[in-house]
What does this fold into?
Amino acid sequence: MRLEGKVVVVTGAGSGMGLAMATRFTAEGASVVAGDWNGERLDAAVAKIQADGGTIVSAQGDISDQATAEGLVDLAVKTYGRLDVLCNNAGVMDYMQGVGELADEIWRKVLSINLDGPMFASRRAVQHMLEHGGGVIINTASTAGLHGGAAGAAYTVAKHGLVGLTRNTAWMYAKRGIRCNAICPGATMTHIGESMPEDRLDPTGAARAAEFAALAPVYLQPDDIAALALFLASDESRHINGAIIPADGGWDAV
It folds into this structure.
């Protein structure tokens, strides 16, 4: 098994890419701590994985809350004695607002969940990993972390920031056994659209983003992203560090 004996934290694990990651990781021998804001989905995900023989515990909460983010890492150490891999996967969309239309509350919400949360969790994870000789951090960024036309200003800034956090973390801790990489999914079939109800979308911004979205060659499934995350979590990728990897069927080549 590719992750035998490894301990992994996955945020946003109640559905979509996070659930697919947790499912693959446990199937490959990892012990998982799953976090999600939606308790009902999280409970269902954990029950399914446990029924399939996976080792998993969970904690419900808002990843933008510092105590919640740090608590997931601490729960892994308390439950399993260590932390080997952190997957910062939780995220929300914005309302496709350009900066001229951007509402303060959307800016704060998107940045706090998509960037503050990963920073809080990564900071705590690095502290634990340094005590045990290293580890792996995998950040779920986005096509919007590479381009300006895939979303509104808040989401675009947050994902660009996460790319920067990935590269800085990789560089700062490369000589101390910690690897950090980011996956940039393209159009993927998940529940993230629920965070951008149609009646709240900025029509001009949505129209501009739709022009870019029309260029996407393919829609991915969550397991497509989970397969890449599994590779990055495993020792097979031991020399891959600081990589920002598009997984979009070629969308990034536009």
In short: The chain has one domain: 7-243. The first strand starts at residue 7 and ends at 11. Helices lie at 16-27, 39-51, 66-80, 104-131, 153-173, 203-213, 222-233.
